[in-house]
Every structure is written in structure tokens, then in C-alpha cells.
């Protein structure tokens, strides 16, 4: 059973989303919050959820802020951004704060359910329109604003993947990086590399430590940036 927390400032959307999600026997809605601050309190009060379905634009604590605070309070919780807005400035910011995916609200109910299950499995999910835009941001000719955002993601390091050796990544660690960038879960990476899932988790922890990054989303973004 996947425990889901719904965060949206519109009561109608919260109730509608709850009805949609609870039609699936694998999902259970454990709460509904009106903004990012309330969602953060949900976790600091001792409650928990496996996946947070998070709106971005809310008056009392945006989804971007809420994502950051939730990931600090509950690192294992997956945050799936769901919004009608596809503003450039929010895409990188939400991912940088630890979001596992980003979908638009015009997606079908089945698509939302699939998205929740996808991020719960450890995969990274982005709406195709936003993925294309993100790719254009990573291109060397992208705007100064996009470049600044990516520099925040890389923590001021210039193309660290171009200098693998200086960070001491082993051949296997490089393979794990590639699989993460392809969107594979830990279980799927383990199957492809013929290793245990626990071993893959250890490799990822070591990779994050060597590169000075926080999560697998940053690894994927850095890998894509290196390809251009």
C-alpha cells in the first residue's frame, strides 16, 4: 500500500484527487494539506507518507519550499509536483529541492496514478514537454538564468562529470550514474548490473559523497549536462 499525501490550496482539487487515487487498491490517501507549510507540519508532527502529490503555486508556502522542507524532515519520501503551471523558474528549483518528478494537471487520472507508482519505485518522472524544455536549458547556449540555476544544482562545480578521475569514481560507479540518468530504479540497476539492491544503494551513497551532491536527481542533471 502506497501512502499518499495531497497538497493543494484548492479544496475541490484535494477532494477530487482523493476520490481518484482511492479508486486504486494500491494507494491510500493519508492526508490532505492546503499549502507547503501545512505539509511540512504533517511530517514534523510525526505523521508520514510515501509520496507527496504537491501543487507548486500556493499562497502560504509554495510547493518548491514545501518540497525542500519535506525532504529535510523525511528524506525517503518522494515528492511528485503536479501543477497547471510550467514556468521555467520552478522546474529546476523543484528538482533541486529534491522532487522526484513533475507532471501537469491536465494529465489523465491514470497518468497521475502511474506517476505516483513510478516515483515510489525510485524512478524519476518528468512530463515530456518539461523534459524537452529541461534539455534545452542544459544546452551550452541556454539562457543566463538557466545557467545560473544549473550552477546551483552543481554546487558551483564546472562540469564535474568531465573530470571523473579527479573525483575517483570507479567504472562500476560510472555505470550506476548512467543508469540513474536513464531513470532506472535501484532494483532495475541491480538487475542490469547483476548486483544486490543493497549494493547499489551503497554505490549511490558513495557517488553522492564523492561528487558532493544531495540526491539522484542532481546526479541525473549533471550527467545530462555533461552530454552536451
Give the structure's gist in a few sentences:
This protein has 228 residues and is an alpha/beta fold.
Element layout with pairings:
Blueprint: E1 2-7, H1 11-21, E2 27-33, H2 36-44, E3 51-54, H3 63-73, E4 78-83, H4 88-96, E5 101-104, H5 109-120, E6 125-126, H6 128-138, H7 144-153, H8 164-167, H9 171-181, H10 186-193, H11 197-211, H12 216-227
Helix pairs in contact: 2-3, 4-7, 9-11, 9-12, 10-11
How is this structure best described in words?
The protein is an alpha/beta fold and 228 residues long. 54% of the residues lie in helices and 13% in strands. It contains twelve helices and six strands. It has a six-stranded parallel sheet, sandwiched between helices. Helix 4 (88-96) links the parallel strand 4 and strand 5 (101-104). Helix 2 (36-44) runs parallel beside helix 3 and helix 10 packs across helix 11 (197-211). The protein is globular and about 50 Å long.
* Overall pLDDT metric: 80
Gross morphology is: globular
Instruction: Work out the oligomeric state of the chains in this entry.
Output: single chain
**Total strands:** 6
Query: With helices defined by DSSP (H or I, 4 residues minimum), what is the helix count?
Result: 12
User: Hey, roughly how much beta strand do the residues contain?
Assistant: 5-15%
The radius of gyration computed from the alpha-carbon positions, rounded to a whole number of angstroms, is 17 Å
Adjacency order of strands in the biggest sheet: 2-1-3-4-5-6
Helix content: 40-55%
Described by strand count, sense and barrel closure, the largest sheet is: 6 strands, parallel
| SS-based class | alpha/beta
Order of helices and strands: EHEHEHEHEHEHHHHHHH
